[in-house]
Design a protein that fits this description.
The complex is a heterotrimer of chains A (347), B (298) and C (503).
Chain A lengths: L1 H9 L3 H20 L4 H13 L2 H26 L7 H18 L5 H30 L3 H21 L32 H18 L1 H11 L1 H6 L4 H28 L10 H11 L4 H25 L5 H14 L1 H11 L3
Chain B lengths: L1 H30 L7 H19 L2 H25 L4 H24 L13 E2 L4 H5 L2 E2 H19 L1 H11 L1 H6 L4 H27 L11 H11 L4 H24 L4 H5 L1 H13 L16
Antiparallel strand pairs in B: 1-2
Helix pairs in contact in B: 1-6, 1-9, 1-10, 1-11, 2-3, 2-4, 2-9, 2-10, 3-4, 3-9, 6-7, 7-9, 10-11, 10-13, 11-13
Chain C lengths: L2 E12 L2 E12 L3 E5 L6 H8 L7 E6 L2 E3 L4 H6 L2 E4 L11 H6 L5 E2 L2 E2 L1 H15 L14 H14 L4 E5 L7 H16 L3 E6 L2 H7 L2 E6 L2 E7 L5 H9 L17 E10 L10 E6 L2 E6 L6 H9 L4 E8 L2 E2 L5 H6 L2 E4 L3 H5 L6 H6 L9 E2 L3 E2 L1 H14 L16 H12 L6 E5 L7 H16 L3 E5 L3 H7 L2 E6 L2 E6 L5 H8 L7
Parallel strand pairs in C: 3-10, 3-11, 6-9, 9-10, 15-22, 15-23, 18-21, 21-22
Antiparallel strand pairs in C: 1-2, 1-4, 4-5, 7-8, 11-12, 13-14, 13-16, 16-17, 19-20, 23-24
The chains are: A mainly alpha (347), B mainly alpha (298), C alpha/beta (503).
Amino acid sequence: MLRRARRFLEFPFLPEVVAILTAFLLGLLVLFFTGYPPLRAFSALFRGAFGSRNAFGQTLTQATPILFTSLSFLLSFRAGIFNIGIEGQLLMGAFVAALLGTMIRSLPLPLHLPLALLGGGLGGALWALIPALIKTYLGAHEVITTMMMSYIASYLTSYFVNYPFKAPGWVAQTNPVQPTALLPRILPPTQLSLAFPLALVFSVLVFYFLFRTYLGFQVRAVGLNPEVAENRGISVASRQILAFLLSGFVAGIGGAGEVLGVHGKFVDGFSPGYGWDGIAVSLVGRLHPLGCILASLLFGMLRAGGMTMARVTKVPLDLSLIIQALVILLIAAPRLIRIFILRKRGL
Amino acid sequence: MGILSLSLFQAMLRMSMPVLFAALGGMFCERAGVVNIGLEGIMLNSAFFAVLATFLSGSPWIGFLSGVLSGVGLGVVIAILTVKYSGNQIVVGTGINVFGLGFSAFMCQKIWGSRGASGSVAGLPLLRVPYLEQVLGENTILIYVAFALIILSHLFLFHTPWGLRLRAVGENPQAADTAGVNVHRYKMVFVTLGSGITGLGGVFLSLAHLSFFAWGMTSGRGFMGLAAMIFGKWTPLGCFLASLLFGFTDALQMRVQALGILPSQIILLFPYVVTILVLSGFVGKALPPSDYKPYEKR
Amino acid sequence: MAFALQVRGLTKSFPGVLANDHIDLDVEEGEIHGILGENGAGKSVLMSVIYGLYRPDEGKILVRGQEVAIGSPSQAIRCGIGMVHQNLTLVPQLRVFENIILGQEPRRGIFLERQKARRRIEELLHQTGLSIDLNARVRDLPIGLQQRVEILKMLYRGASILIFDEPTTVLTPQEVDQLITYLLALKKQGKTIIFISHKLREVFALCDRVTVLRRGKKVGTCAIKEATPESLAEMMVGRRVLFELPRGRKPAEEVVFSVEGVSTLPEKGKALREVSFRVHRYEILGIAGVEGNGQTELAETIVGLRRVRQGKLVLNGEDITYLSVKERIKRGLAHIPEDRHRRGAILDFTVMENLMLGFEDEPPLRRGLLTLHFPTLQEFASSLIREFEIATPGGDTLVRTLSGGNQQKVVLARELSHPVSVLLACQPTRGLDVAATEYLHRKLLELKNQGKAVVLISADLDEIRALSDRVLVLYEGRIIGELSPESDEYQFGLLMGGKSLAS
């Protein structure tokens, strides 16, 4: 265990750091060429992320759903599944949590809150179960089906909050969640809630599951080499379905955390693409739960700082999406980075 | 009723275009042994650049060209990352999708001050073709480009030496290599070409179907293209027929929406549900031409 | 003396391996030149360099006295060099003639000229006396015919120096004889042939001269007339070879494992048809046959990965036909899969993780509901590493970084780490070096002499005959006959080619 931890830290994220720095550099160039003041924009970004106690709270708030979605992606990827429909699972989880939070009345907090959270997780898991079953029994590749399920989730929840569950008023959203189902805020006046420590707990749980339990071991074996796993009596289909369910569950909890911790209701289109963030964060975090914590802080910073940046310098928020895409692309080809590093060292 | 069905047919044909371009583009990539998940991002990016170039130059033809070239540009990126540096094809494709979404929205806001939609620009003019027009409906040049592409890619794949080599590269790169075919060059060229063709789908959306750019306007058609390609068994004619199915659901959905009998959100679900059904019902056992692993020449 | 091909000081290394170490080679015009050596001696690498698949670190290649730079197969083809690879390099989905013309297609304008291509190939067929259906899809052809397509591919490109990289491993003895006839005919037409093999019989039947390689170095070249099997074998291995292994005691009467009239469906492979056999205590039962005749399917059926349509499997008197893979392992079935990298070990798992694979969900490795118990795991791993002499820095080394022999030891250790009554060993020594092969053979015999039953499936007839007490031959999914290991090669050949002895 210790030796493994040391190995994990020994060559500390050099390719990842290079990828991130390069992505930021390219982001600067984009700003420069589109006529925005790059340095002012970036300083606003950093101020918005770390400049004050509130800014930092905002960063952690933004990091929370991203940490959940990155854990979700990680769980599927370790089983050899490419679940890119996390966005949809997050939305369904959020919606179920909102329903349970608004509809159930007069239940004490110690019961109501866990129930709403759990409901969110199950909502996400159920949404992931559909592509899982399709993959197992009908053989359709999950990359397309999970993506389609995401679109369906987004239209479906939009329908729900526009019609049957719409709160009175102009905005497409549900009624507010009962106070007994709200996640307590831990750093007022920011929106940081108990969802953040909960996400940290989930990171540890995912780590424990993958590396300390026999089921996690089997999931990893299936992900690395299904044929060997099968030869050793591990059921590939059941372990992949399990991973899909867990992946959806964690995504759903992430969605529930947003509803119960930040917004207090389900607002149509509340997720700016947390599902996509999760993929990038997972990759940057080397598909390791502890790496995901660090990487999600980075992306939370991008989101939180990005908002300040957009307000102060009018730089569109989408810059953070661009940087994120660049990080994914640069990390996708490890050999590219490795060559880059070697050249820099003059080797 | 006759007129209704003819106009439905024409709408189906029109709406199948973006999916068809994506399917054909994706087909060339897969024939070269690269699965291109990034079709969506390529299309979106091309849709944006087509509008941008039209806006700047005043000519939709320049826009047309820019749309294709921006597809080619992203194709080069994908080719370099997946072929030259053996990057994970699905991860690279995902990166391209995120990029397409972010970059187009960023630039749209920069230029038109709104990330939701651009201003209106001149669309591609309608091409007057006597007789044909009465069957196919009023169309821009793109629909004829599409037909030409179907025929040309069929001839190319199955009747030219280079098509034979391309098929060999996708099926068994080792065999192609030992037969003296430059596998890497074929992969690079055809991933790039396929991405360029996919770009045409974006041009269709922003300069023929509409005449402006809207945030995320491809709404999953790149993924539908992938599904159509699989359903069409990686052949140009198959891609065409499968795309018609998607065009049909899209056209039908518009009809129903116009009637106002169902909320739009529910109707908009149709194509996605159909995609899943197509993938899981009809083609459960379709075998892709390659195993999507980067070819390593030791 | 005119040389068709000369190699001077050729060196090629891969990370951690010096595959070719300053090799010189002279191949005379019009001769059949044998390249002999054990697995891993560097034969294939040498030929791959000559054919432009690898770039040499050092050294040069001369074709008919001219130094040439061969950076790619197409340059090799231009120099008149053609190669038939060990693993055939055909595109299975394409037709025979498409495979032959691939890369050098006749065309009119931009279009393929199919008729012309066919005519040219038919001419070739006429000249060489080969025959084949040009429109068949390659995936539908048996291996022997696929090899013929490869030969035609070379001739179509006008190759005059033909390299054959272990062409006989996948053929029946009869197909081998046929190939030898073709090769002699090609020689008569003036072609120069380089024939790579590790089988002495073929080298003696075919070659004029032979060059022996050992561990990446050239040992020497000699005319075949001056060589004896013993002298070549010694050059190859470097010391006296034990052709005979002590078999140990005779099989007992007691049946450990039996397959009774088992048939399967042809899903993703060959169907098994009424396969029956019994394995006894103290017995190694060899299953011979040309690859692709149902060996993989038989193994998968025994392990529990394939559904049995008819018949049953009985282990220690218990019907295990419908038991899961896991239950069979628990009842004492061990399995060395045929392809170590794909089915045997997980390369990106550590040695320990590979050793515990399949035992992780039960005590003592599991403690409590879900948790793995690491102290027990480490103890378990290190005792196996010691017992099976696995050369690894430790239990947490990735299996990917081990040598092939040690990877196979990891698989073997895992399979034998629980009470075993029958071991199914599939191609257990493929790709291993001499020492590792010997270790594995000793282990199999040791197991037998402990009273276990062993089913040995191998394409290597020598291996089967050296180890087995009885041999069954598998052909087209059926057991076509039984032989004793002492039967002569001709009889094996007949059975492997599908001609049962009775008829």
